[in-house]
Design brief:
This protein is an alpha/beta fold. The protein is built from 21 helices and eight strands. It folds into three domains: 155 residues, Double Clp-N motif, CATH 1.10.1780; 200 residues, P-loop containing nucleotide triphosphate hydrolases (Rossmann fold), CATH 3.40.50; 38 residues, Helicase, Ruva Protein, domain 3 (Orthogonal Bundle), CATH 1.10.8.60. Helix 17 links the parallel strand 6 and strand 7. The protein is globular.
């Protein structure tokens, strides 16, 4: 698979400037070593990240797949070419796209050289405008200023999107499970492929595309949502969940028709409710959260223990159920299909809160999550054995794992596997 770091190495290799890549002093041999060391620090083995041979990979040079980030870079390069008034794609266009929509891997390489991506992007723009001058096609001062201003604002909007989220309701009340999965902070989900496949199938529907996971506490409902986030991060789901198309007005100075990956955001209900003392404050938080989800457009909201939003989160008249609860604030957007939601709750809570509210129940498609069998529980523990061994600094034998599952099933009757 061609990743953004491969793309960076290709651009550096094609730039024959004596001063290095875009005058930054970066040489191809040095860059290759830095990329290798970066891969080595991010994986268990450098061999797992290095390019493999044709026989090992099964790909020929004509059909090597691109990663999601690499695809986004090329789409951004096309868009920048149009923005600058060009009818061609040069390496500099690709470099501009690489430095502005990078997933962070290229930025880590540049940091090792003490180079800023925005600075290199500005150099690339200057170089492209210099080529127009040589061809006698220098843009007017007015159009040149507009294009530079447009580029600067677009780059700033894209590069500062993460920082701006820090002050948003999404950042305050939600956790990005897809980002955590990309960083390797989520344990692998083992033996739940059928359940995850069912969730993916529901999410890809045109209507009634909000799954609700039903199962007893401890059977792994939250882990399945994390497994979906991992599948999206690893591009193991249909294209519908990997990308979406959106149109933004020129006022926002962002790309039109730019593709971005879906993200699974887990709502922290406790943080959402905590500290909401004034009348209408909780309503304001929820409506702000919904507005930001709609603006982002690529959010799949995961609400664990969703029954806590029904009745107990009453707004306006105490907790007696006569006011407007949080779930009712979500109903209109869910009913119109403006965003998607994955919920989880127990079977008893579903019967208590959802079956009596037919309008709310219609917006969700139930997915039963059963307790795994002892054999499945053993496979799950075997898959996680290395992580637990590293944490506890000890070794777990197969006999110990089998005994743990068997004895917990026999003597811990009030809890569920795994």
């Amino acid at each position: 698979m061609v990743c953004t770091q491969h793309l960076l190495l290709g651009l550096i290799g094609e730039d024959h400037d004596p001063k290095g890549f875009l005058g930054s002093g970066i040489k191809i041999d040095e860059a290759r070593e830095v990329v290798k060391s970066t891969w080595h620090s991010e994986s268990d083995s450098i061999d797992a990240s290095e390019s493999v041979s044709k026989e090992e990979s099964g790909f020929s040079p004509s059909n090597v797949p691109f990663s999601i980030s690499t695809t986004r870079v090329f789409e951004a390069a096309v868009e920048y070419s149009r923005t600058l008034g060009h009818n061609f794609i040069a390496p500099e266009h690709i470099a501009i796209g690489l430095f502005t929509v990078d997933d962070g891997s290229v930025d880590r390489v540049l940091q090792r050289f003490g180079v800023d991506g925005d600075h290199l992007a500005a150099i690339a723009v200057t170089k492209l405008q210099g080529e127009l001058v040589k061809d006698g096609r220098e843009p007017s001062v007015e159009s040149k200023g507009k294009r530079e201003k447009s580029f600067t604002k677009k780059a700033a909007a894209l590069r500062s999107s993460e920082q701006s989220r820090d002050k948003s309701a999404l950042a305050q009340f939600c956790v990005d499970l897809t980002a955590r999965a990309s960083e390797g902070l989520i344990d692998p989900v083992i033996g739940r492929h059928s359940e995850i496949g069912r969730i993916v199938q529901i999410l890809c529907r045109r209507s009634k595309n909000n799954p609700i996971l039903l199962g007893e506490s401890g059977v792994g409902k939250t882990a399945i949502a994390e497994g979906l986030a991992t599948s999206i991060a690893q591009a193991k789901v249909p294209v519908f969940l990997l990308m979406f198309l959106f149109m933004l007005t020129l006022r926002k100075l962002c790309f039109a028709n730019l593709r971005r990956r879906k993200r699974v955001m887990s709502l922290d209900v406790g943080m959402l409710i905590a500290g909401a003392k004034e009348r209408g404050e909780l309503e304001a938080r929820v409506t702000t959260l919904i507005r930001e989800i709609l603006e982002e457009g690529n959010i799949i909201l995961f609400i664990d223990e969703v029954h806590t939003l029904v009745g107990s989160g009453t707004v306006g008249r105490g907790n007696k159920g006569s006011g407007l609860d949080i779930a009712n604030l979500l109903k209109p957007s869910l009913g119109r299909g403006q965003f998607q939601c994955i919920a989880s709750t127990t079977i008893d809570e579903y019967r208590t809160h959802f079956e009596i509210d037919k309008a709310l129940a219609r917006r969700f498609q139930p997915v039963m999550i059963n307790e795994p069998s002892q054999e499945d529980a053993v496979r799950i523990l075997l898959g996680l054995r290395q992580k637990y061994e590293a944490h506890h600094n000890c070794r777990f034998t197969l006999e110990a794992i089998n005994a743990a599952v068997s004895l917990s099933t026999r003597y811990i009757a009030d809890r569920y596997l795994p």
